[in-house]
């Protein structure tokens, strides 16, 4: 799991999100309501390319206009088999990892699962 918690706001732009991804070397960012802490979406580098650039939209397009709303999540206490199964069932490559208070604590990707191997490991 990537525990580097970097989020963006729905009102941020595609360009600012792309810069943040470059600076932090991540390919996905949870979208958080500022001051509330609620995760309302997720964007990926692919979203920026396909939903913004390929459609000829401005780089000043707000994240709210192209984010995936209500991203798939897993609990930080879930084991790798559970996480892998959820990804397979939902057809996603990443899950936002939340704690018992539903606060984001990281993102787990297919790469994390393949690097860590299958098993019953927890995300803590």
From TrEMBL:
<dbReference type="InterPro" id="IPR046342">
    <property type="entry name" value="CBS_dom_sf"/>
</dbReference>
<feature type="domain" description="CBS">
    <location>
        <begin position="1"/>
        <end position="59"/>
    </location>
</feature>
<dbReference type="InterPro" id="IPR000644">
    <property type="entry name" value="CBS_dom"/>
</dbReference>
<protein>
    <submittedName>
        <fullName>CBS domain-containing protein</fullName>
    </submittedName>
</protein>
<dbReference type="Pfam" id="PF00571">
    <property type="entry name" value="CBS"/>
</dbReference>
<feature type="domain" description="CBS">
    <location>
        <begin position="67"/>
        <end position="124"/>
    </location>
</feature>
<dbReference type="InterPro" id="IPR051257">
    <property type="entry name" value="Diverse_CBS-Domain"/>
</dbReference>
<keyword id="KW-0129">CBS domain</keyword>
């Amino acid at each position: 799991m990537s525990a580097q918690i970097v989020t963006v706001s729905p009102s941020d732009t595609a360009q600012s999100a792309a810069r943040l991804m470059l600076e932090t070397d991540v390919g996905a960012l949870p979208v958080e309501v500022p001051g509330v802490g609620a995760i309302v979406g997720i964007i990926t580098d692919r979203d920026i390319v396909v939903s913004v650039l390929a459609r000829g939209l401005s780089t000043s397009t707000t994240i709210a206009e192209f984010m995936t709303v209500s991203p798939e999540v897993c609990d930080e206490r879930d084991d790798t088999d559970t996480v892998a199964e959820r990804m397979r069932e939902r057809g996603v490559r990443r899950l936002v990892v939340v704690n018992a208070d539903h606060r984001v604590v990281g993102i787990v990707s297919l790469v994390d699962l393949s690097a860590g191997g299958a098993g019953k490991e927890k995300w803590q």
